[in-house]
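Lecture 7, part B: from sequences to assemblies.

Below are the input chains for today's worked example.
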Amino acid sequence: MTAMADQQEATTPGTSRERSRAISWALDRAPFLVACLMLVVIVAIYGTLQRDVFSLEEINLDVTATLTLLLAATGQTIVLIRGGIDLSIGGMISFGTVLAATQFGSDPGSVLLWSVIILCIGFAVGALNGLMISVLRLQPFLITLATWSILSGISLIILPTDGGQVPAFWSGFGGAQFLGLASPVWLLVLLMLFWFWFRSTRLGIAIKATGSNEKSAFLSGVSLTRINVVTYGLSGLFAAAAALYLTTQTGAGSPTIGKDYILPSVAAAVIGGVSLFGGRGSLAGTVIGALILTIIGNLVFVLHISSYWQPVASGVILLLAVLASSIAEKAARSDEQ
Amino acid sequence: MDLLEVSGLSKRYGGIHALSGAEFSARIGEVHALLGENGAGKSTLIQILAGAVRHDGGTIKVNGALYAPANPDAAHAAGISAVFQELSLIPDLTVEQNIWFRRETLSPIRTVRRDELRRKTLALFEKYAFPALRPDQEVRRLTLAERQIVEIAKGLASDPAILILDEATSTLPAREAEWLLGLTRRLAAEGKLVIFISHRMAEVRHIADRLTIFRNGTTVGVHEANAVGDDEIVAQMLGRKLDRLYPERVPTATDRIALKVRDFSAGRRVHDAAFDLREGEVLGVGGLQGHGQRELFQALFGATRSRGQVEIWGKPVTISNPRHALIGRDGLALVPEDRRGQGILLTKSVRENLTVSVIRRFSEFGVLSHAREQALVKEMVDFLRIKTSTPEQLAGTVSGGNQQKVIFGKMLLTEARILLLYDPTRGVDVGTKGEIFQLMRDLAAKGYAILFYSSDLPELVHVADRVLVMRNGEIAATLAGVANSEEGILRAAVFEAAA
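Predicted structure of the full complex, as structure tokens:
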């Protein structure tokens, strides 16, 4: 190999070597870069149609609107990097809002207690998903489809129609500001800090490794059961957090609202460059993906066209993103020696 | 007392005894070679020692204490580290992340310290004079040989008392293989026990102090390396005498050109290749590793893009996709480099692997005919002497040599008469090697045309009719007759002026 390397050194001048390194750097991140580009284009179009798009207020509004999806998509991102998928977040989000709207009462102590309980239930349900996937050796798709259905059913039993209520201070959360930024923006900052910490922990690396190559990870001593329990547990936890945040926005519980977040959570991650085959992706990409999906909604609104165009536009964006990443993948492969 | 003592070890997979009453013992400071055909039980022993699988019966003692690791971590704790033949690296992690995976130094907030990762990696590379590698490169960008080196680094990272090298030299180019042999001796001199597995007899003779021979899951011989002859070793491995490794080479090439290639370029690695492969010919492809041989094979098979003219049996063709290449008697079939990655589906049965590319041959009006499928599978299993309890056995549970035979069977069932064999004997035991060479010559005699790459020079010299030597992506020389010698190939591979 040293012989080969020497030879490459001799035949390729340093500059072109540098350039090829830069190209492979860009190719590796192509899906993410394409997502950023799409966001810029969409924001630019939005900016020409609407006044005051480039303001703190707009950022506050967009992040506030995106955060439920983003929280759900954070859990989904972790699961996708593991090489799995979690459909049960739909059930968990519904279940979480229903519990909050029926159990919170008006006492802050009870609100706090039930928030913690809901988060714990989220983690426990996810952990159970992970355990079943490992022990029963079934597809994550099937297991989480089943838990989604079960949780949806329980939600409907507790609260058959949208309703219930949460205290006023709870619904006021999104309106609170600090240093000109709304509280959801600060939550987003916290979320990113969490991610930058999490991805360099041993657990974060082990989840990525397991998604990249399960057998190698096992041979290196990773316990697949433990990884599945924690991965899906985190996904459930973030779904519960999404549910709690959602109730601050809607002020009520809904036994059916969760299904609206299942596929968008996957779409946001994939648009942001997370690989469905595991091992690759980052929350930064998912944030971009979630923002794109939200601003597409704004765009449809300011264009005064039927809101049915929103899913059409989201679908086109998703196609473009998938196309971009597959082209990048092919280019990267032919670039490899 | 020996450092490692294995006695009466047994392991069953379904109805097959991978190990039955195996004995093995080795001491501190020695290089102990473990020999045997594929399927003799070597891999199983290693996997048990490394904690990847658990044994059914018998005992293992390390330093006199009973040892039965429940998982790979337990093996590490006991000071045993294995460099696996099927690599255990994570493609999406970097070189340094892989080497220290799960043993990283942590910061106060429990994150991995990258500076420490880099420092320890460079220190390890320097201590053992590793070939140049970038620590921050992702493993999926590395060649097979580079990955093997990272795997070795990973095995050494925990500073084990017992290091197991399973076929570690088989993917390495000559210079790096030499380095590894030197390293092995050095580790033994430092007081480690190195268990060394290789099918290259010369290497084994060169570095082993003692050797243990396995056959059919049991120990059939333990020898001081300098007190036993090659013939005796091979006879014990096979349970019979091997007449000769290389079959007699009777020229069977006709004038008919099976594959005509002109001005053929692929990516940045193959430039203006031109050659003719004739009916009944075995055409070797040689040269130093990484000079475009792999890309040539992949491009001819349609797995990567190419430019230039290709004629198959006289007809100009464009192969831009492996599906084009596969079709029918006028097609091409490939035995790929990375058996486990590309050639075989480990979790499917031997039968399914054999017939996966030719499903349509058993279907009439879209309905599968199982009788026809089973007849053909049986024929192929018998013809190639694939060792399997039933054709329904999972391919992942048969030995490496048998997996390679399955790939050959899959290729032959496509009925293609132009065969592209990329290093078909890598990691294959000496008995199966002989069978593969004989098979190649038999196929050539039947009119097949075979393009054959090997990283082993003697194979090219003894099996191929002519040899194309590649250098920097070009065909530097075509050697035939007396010019086709190990020296001739090396000379053409290394020197600009040779032709």
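Note for the exam: Strands of chain A lie at 177-178, 181-182. Keep this in mind when comparing with the next example.
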